[in-house]
Design a protein that fits this description.
Layout: H1 3-31
Length: 52
């Protein structure tokens, strides 16, 4: 097998692996469930505005 053919196969294989890894990462990120938007800590407000 010539060196040019071996190098071409290597480049194509590496590109295919990179694309597959990128698509896999995107699929994993999209599979993560949405987080609730409720705060863990809430503060009670007794009045409007701030007192001087």
């Amino acid at each position: 097998m010539s060196r040019l053919l071996a190098a071409s196969i290597t480049v194509v294989t590496a590109a295919a692996l990179a694309v597959g890894a990128a698509l896999g990462a995107v699929a994993l990120l999209e599979a993560t469930p949405e987080q609730p938007g409720t705060p863990l800590i809430t503060y009670e407000r007794t009045g409007e505005g701030s007192a001087p």
